[in-house]
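Troubleshooting log. The previous run stalled partway through. Resubmitting the same two chains, unchanged.
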Amino acid sequence: MRKLQIIWRLGVLGCAVLMIAMTLVLWSATGRAGYTKYHDPDRAQRDAEAASGSIEDLFDEAGAEIEALPEVANRFELGLLPGGLDKSIPSVLTIAGPASLIAAGSIFSLALFTKRLSSGTPKPTES
Amino acid sequence: MTRTTTNRIRRSTTLLAAIGAALLTAGIASAEDAAPSENGLELIVPGAHQDLGTVCHALKGKDAQVTFTSDAPLEFIKGTSNQVIGYTIAGEGGELLAGEFHLPIDSLDTGIPMRDKHMQSARWLESETYPNVVFRIAETTGIKETKSTEMFTTYEVTLIGDMTIKGVTREMSIPATITRMPESDKTRIRFPGDLLAIRCSYPIVLSDFGIGESDPGITAGKVSDDLTLETRLFCSTASPEAVMSNR
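Second attempt completed without errors. Output:
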């Protein structure tokens, strides 16, 4: 029974740590943004329209190179903080934060459990 | 004092008051922003500017674009707009004699709607009271031809003008590249009118315009006081409406 309790607590801790690790991997892979943002289909359409038949093409074809403006990325980026209180709420803070609390709780309860085991004190029960 | 003298004094006073009022009104009028046209595609060029040279209208929508970058220690923000309207008066060669461009604050898109709203709020750019960033060209200096072909000529210039952000105006010198492409058979079938491209990159210090001074966003390192603005505007001597309908 005790073994099962330890395994259960270790399992919870493992899942929480895995969730934190996965969140950080996703944050890193999507551009390490400060705030969460999503791909904007309207902007993508505007950009696509701009790319076709632009006046810029005319200048390019003539050999006048008008330097392009730096692009503003239009893609999903998981941020450290939520980008808003709507669909942009997932973030490292809002996902890994609760997972960290669960991990901390698991570590604390594991420490308490093993201490109790080693001292041989029975679990306090309601009288 | 005779009645005639009194009348003369009265007339002189009235005349002086009228001249003063006229001068004051002219002063205010020159400081006012040019009004947008009914269709919102261009600014109405003041009569005084129309006679200076060739009027070129900025082409809003696909081709008019501005990007700003804030590179703060804690956050990198990039925003863009393709809703710039305005005009410039082109003289000989790469000279721009006058002009005015409006960048609507509400059109700036950073990719995060909440951040855009913050930017528009009274804490930052206060778009409700000051809807546009306005740049007025006063003169062009240091004109140097850098490239010329049968179809176009490119010039390196410095644009001198007044930048107004959140109601505060500062004189600025902006290094720019101007490319002029006169209308030809090749260009006419795609875009009517003589074409002109303005490309520039310049820094803006927010505190110079009274924005974000001692704001926690800046002191905490989330927003940089020094922004970089990149502008690439395409203009045509044809009206923007005519260019749009030709696309």
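Takeaways: The first helix of chain A runs from residue 2 to 29. The mean pLDDT of chain A is 86.
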